[in-house]
């Protein structure tokens, strides 16, 4: 009897948690399908009259400039992720495969930097980006995202340790130089780690709000986050359009999650621990 | 990248040693050049600049500034309006405690095995992957007067509240959003650690007649200690540096300004770069202090990198 009650409470708590996660999201989805008229009459949980009313999505997509936003986000994402992979794997290669005197210092340099909350330094970073002439260009976030991502370096080092050094050594004996070893042996074997870094970094950049908000105020340079944020002004009272925009932003995350669950769990657990 | 060109380097002498690591004495610096430049330019130079700005009254625009000594720090600690924002962190800290306890609970019950485990795991984790602005809008709508929350609570007879409009309630609501958003990542970390515990420990304990609670208390908890300690530290420094959700949802109005929002406003709206830099240094100091305390109190081999 007590066991049955325990099992019941266990599932009850899971169902409640599921409801807490899903209800706010479902209401946004319902709202995005309602007409302006239905918004005025129905309560927040009322159903849309036409389940295939995609007018709000069209408004959000076109007037909300979601297409250029997607373009900007993709551009930033591509270059930042590419640079992170190249730089991160080279750093890990140097740290894991070479012995040198200042190694401890270099490592400490990266580790201490990981402790500095990025947001606090923006006051000073802003002056540097402006001094470089990168303010209000898509290169500002790219530079900041590729700048020393300790988490990816850590993921690469972890993975590189599992690649036997005998592989490099025999290649070296065959006359390969260190770059050939990196390019032909290490990099191909790092593929799973690269996949993890690409996914984690990709999700982080897609979701980041403050860096594009601060460094790219120009209307033409909206990213997914900042363009959605701009819905707040003109559509202040039009929740059906804001909801449609929100759904448009969430759906890609959901698809990526459903397709790549395994990588995502692994990536974020190794990432969160630094 | 320039890297491709850098590595042609000097010709390699054929080596016959057992450890054929060294092609040229400084090769590793070629690989480290780009990351170190980025590290210095985007982390260490800004921190150094923050320190030097913090002793001036610089406005961020003019060519000149006055050296003001410790004035900015004095102002920060003596003007109650500037300092009280730290109390807002307490709401998020309380939220973080709730979050860790809930994450532990769900990790423990899902770790012990339930039906639809993958589904529940996904549900709990997914909020962590959602865009912050989208979460902000989802909950602005959720908390609206007469909105979803009021309607649902109305079913149980509760009276509507101004979840975001009431200065006494707004931080609780926002901390709740933060728990909703970040619970999943703690949960997945704990869940992974529980999966790594050998099952025969539980089987042996069950044979000896240990209850579920005793198993959790004496097997699960000790095994999770290191990860709980790291999570707690991240929670503390996280609650000190909260800004995204309140910035998006309330813009810091109604008593919901956090320390970081205030710092960013001082710097980018009120052109008080000097004062903002001092604030940033104070926050940085606090975060480093908390991390250092953790390293001292709970020595942990997991965080080591080499």
TrEMBL record, chain A:
- Superkingdom is Bacteria
Q: Membrane spanning segments where?
A: 12-33, 75-93, 105-127, 139-157, 193-216, 236-260
- Which InterPro entries does the entry link to? MetI-like (IPR000515), MetI-like_sf (IPR035906)
Query: Gene3D superfamilies recorded for this chain?
Result: MetI-like
- One Gene Ontology cellular component annotation? plasma membrane
- Secretion signal span: none
Q: Which keywords fit this entry according to its UniProt record? A: Cell membrane, Membrane, Sugar transport, Transmembrane, Transmembrane helix, Transport
Cell compartment(s), UniProt:
Cell membrane
Name all ABC transmembrane type-1 domain ranges.
Answer: 70-260
Decide whether keyword Transmembrane is in the record: yes
The keyword Transcription is annotated on this UniProt entry? no
Q: Which GO terms describe its biological process?
A: transmembrane transport
* Chief location: membrane
Membrane topology of the entry: Multi-pass membrane protein
> Which family, according to UniProt?
Belongs to the binding-protein-dependent transport system permease family.
| Name listed for the protein in its UniProt record | Multiple sugar transport system permease protein
| Organism listed in the record | Nonomuraea soli
